[in-house]
Write a structure and sequence with these properties.
Layout (H helix, E strand, L loop, with lengths): L3 H10 L5 H7 L8 H19 L5 E2 H10 L4 H13 L3 E5 L2 E4 L2
Antiparallel strand pairs: 1-3, 2-3
Amino acid sequence: MKHLTDRIEEIVDEDPHPAGTFIGLLPDDGCDDPLLAVTAQMMLILAQEKVGRGANYIEIDELFSPLANNGISPDECNEALDHLLITGQIHEVDDDCFVPDE
């Protein structure tokens, strides 16, 4: 049986899970849903890239399609979009048309 100190050192030396990076990007510290964190961040990146290339907005299907192609369900996409809207990271400027917060 390993000594407690040895076990703690092993835990500290482990690389963090990649989803932890995305969870850290969400504004509320209470998020414990890695899929929500990843989906919301991917959605925000899509919106920033599209608007950054000069578009006035990004449509909902442009947000959802790339995520669906990666196996993320429409329900998860809706939850991520709701999260981004509620936290003010993305804004709806017309029906199903969005811009990221500046």
